[in-house]
Design brief:
- The complex is a heterodimer of chains A (112) and B (114).
- With 112 residues, chain A is mainly beta.
- Helix content of chain A is 0%, strand content 52%.
- Chain A has no helices and twelve strands.
- In chain A, strands 2, 5, 6, 10, 11 and 12 form a six-stranded mixed sheet that branches. A four-stranded antiparallel sheet of chain A has the order 3-9-8-7, with no helix packed on it.
- In chain A, strand 10 and strand 11 form a beta hairpin.
- The radius of gyration of chain A is 13 Å and the shape is globular.
- The termini of chain A are far apart.
- Chain B has no helices and eleven strands.
- In chain B, strands 2, 4, 5, 6, 9, 10 and 11 form a seven-stranded mixed sheet that branches. Chain B has a four-stranded antiparallel sheet with strand order 1-3-8-7, with no helix packed on it.
- Chain B is globular.
- Classes of the chains: A mainly beta (112), B mainly beta (114).
- At the A-B interface, strand 5, strand 6 and strand 10 of A face strand 4 and strand 5 of B.
Amino acid sequence: GNSVTQMEGPVTLSEEAFLTINCTYTATGYPSLFWYVQYPGEGLQLLLKATKADDKGSNKGFEATYRKETTSFHLEKGSVQVSDSAVYFCALRIQGAQKLVFGQGTRLTINP
Amino acid sequence: NAGVTQTPKFQVLKTGQSMTLQCAQDMNHEYMSWYRQDPGMGLRLIHYSVGAGITDQGEVPNGYNVSRSTTEDFPLRLLSAAPSQTSVYFCASSYGDRAATEAFFGQGTRLTVV
């Protein structure tokens, strides 16, 4: 089946630290991969995506590379800010499927 | 820009009560979905619709009912609320079913069943 596994949270970092949130997946088809972010009290919004192997998605200083050989889509940011505190969800979607398959989410807290 | 609008934002129900969670989108999207978010479990699909008059079940449909009479609206009905339905509910919409299509989410409805 299709599934997404994210690193366990919560994650707490100091401002300007380097961030990695691991995400691996299993898929029966050829998926597109997404990172969604949920800020406190808000819905999910797309952070970045990648649609084929070796694609790199980037937005707001965050990056993730679609690694087919390791079935991974790790989220990275070189220098986090307090405003990055949120819950991050890795997700996949198979062509023709309505369903987004989500990981369990990782709560990130950045301390000043 | 309204996007996806959900109402209410918060609701407390007693066991056995029924209610409808409202969802409306103004982007003329064909595809709409309902997810529930539970701690440690990510989001799970309840029901979805690929257009007006067409709905189908997701992975956790029991206890919920949907209909899609217009492109804009996709209400979720709880028939007889149970404590296991305490959750945060998100409505989402998207333009098509291509894998790369972005889904747009509402702000969520936090439901507590006592």
